[in-house]
Design goal:
Helices cover 23% and strands 30% of the residues. By secondary structure, it is an alpha/beta fold.
């Protein structure tokens, strides 16, 4: 069986690895636009901060693909899919037939239509080349503005601050991590971040990036300005859909897939940041992991349905662990919310229940119990009997496992 995988990020690489574990004879060809072997994207932050050396970025040794008999094509773009012939064409003219094709093409950084976004000194962080370019600029330009107070923006800000830069975070919403936190938790996080020397500006709508040839600052709709000679835009991502559209696949916000991760062509699958499952594009690591494994099984005819992923994110910023899982800001009636907050230490615990079952949680300021609470949310575990104890530091989650 011949399997072609477009994309050598997490979803593509894990799918290739899983296929080989399941089938020692399948032919596997993986194509990646970048010239580098697979590296977990969170490693870019650690590299940017100076905590991870270049050689430790990559997930596998160079000889791994040879041993696994996986054909890796670095820096080779798939230019076209010919579904009727079950062939892909590469940008260099290569022709590769397939029995099953996986689109794990990922996403590109979203850049809002902002005047000055093309100036020298304005960056996004999506690839290793982006990180290398940011570090090169940082050597001589240490006033950094990060546009975006989401997960990636805060991680970038922390990394730049660790490098000794003067850092400002600019967020259009009225709080940090608006998708992961409620207002109370976001306020505590803001205070903890500012204690590290990072400036945080909320509710700020950027009008233009200032500068002639090189960036010198940002002007807001309010008329205020902030000085910066290095700007990183962290405004989310857009799924990479061009190949799928050109091939005539059904595309909405992402490449539409069913519970087998099949697209509108049954021999073509999609997984990771480019896939849309049941109307949702996840863009998170757990979903890419689960989708890649399911797609690998299903490409080989081994039924492994994918029913969705409970959103769960964990990061550490300003020395503060932050975990968010499931419904943390319930809008519908019928939810019960319990909170324990100690703002001076950065501790904030919140659980959201529906009919006694755990459907959401925020766990901030401590790592203890974070993985367990995330697992309980994924399971929608019935915690009615012990709900009052869950928020206590002394609670033993093993008692409910």
């Amino acid at each position: 069986m011949k399997i072609v995988i477009v994309g050598n990020g997490m979803a593509g690489t894990l799918a290739a690895k899983t296929v080989r574990e399941l089938d020692q004879e399948a032919g596997i060809e993986v194509f990646g636009e970048e010239k580098y072997a697979y590296y977990p994207r969170p490693n870019l932050i650690e590299f940017l901060a100076g905590r991870l050396p270049y050689e430790k970025l990559f997930a596998f040794p160079e000889i791994w693909s040879t041993r696994q008999r996986i054909g890796l094509h670095f820096g080779e773009r798939v230019a076209r899919i010919r579904p009727d012939e079950r062939i892909v064409e590469t940008g260099t003219g290569g022709i590769f037939p397939y029995d099953a094709l996986l689109l794990a093409s990922g996403a590109r950084a979203a850049v809002p239509p902002l005047t000055g976004s093309g100036l020298k000194g304005v960056f996004v962080l999506r690839t290793l080349d982006d990180a290398l370019a940011i570090l090169d600029r940082l050597r001589t330009h240490a006033r950094v503005a990060v546009l975006g107070g989401g997960l990636l923006g805060l991680e970038i800000a922390r990394a730049m601050r660790d490098r000794g830069a003067e850092v400002s975070v600019v967020e259009i919403f009225d709080r940090l991590l608006p998708r992961q936190l409620d207002p109370a938790a976001a306020g505590i996080l803001k205070h903890q971040i500012e204690k590290t020397g990072i400036s945080v500006r909320l509710g700020a709508v950027s009008r233009e990036i200032l500068g002639a040839a090189e960036v010198r600052g940002i002007r807001f709709e309010s008329g205020d300005e902030v000085e910066a000679d290095l700007v990183v835009i962290a405004a989310g991502v857009k799924p990479e859909l061009a190949l799928a559209k050109d091939a005539g696949l059904t595309v909405e916000r992402g490449i539409v897939v069913d519970d087998s991760l099949r697209t509108s062509r049954p021999e073509i699958f999609a997984a990771g940041d480019a896939a849309e499952h049941r109307g949702r594009v996840y863009g998170i690591i757990p979903a890419s992991f689960e989708q890649a494994r399911a797609a690998a099984h299903n490409m080989l005819g081994m039924d492994m349905p994918y029913s969705g992923t409970v959103p769960s994110n964990t990061l550490k910023v300003a020395g503060l662990y932050v975990t968010s899982a499931g419904e943390v800001n319930p809008e519908a009636r019928g939810h019960e919310v319990l909170v324990r907050s100690v703002p001076e230490t950065g501790l904030y615990k919140k659980i959201v229940l529906k009919e006694g079952r755990l459907v959401g949680a925020i766990w901030m300021g401590t790592k203890k119990g974070a993985s367990e609470i995330g697992r309980f949310v994924a399971l929608k575990k019935d915690v009615e009997i012990r709900k009052g104890d869950l928020l206590e530091d002394t609670f033993d989650f093993a008692e409910m496992s």
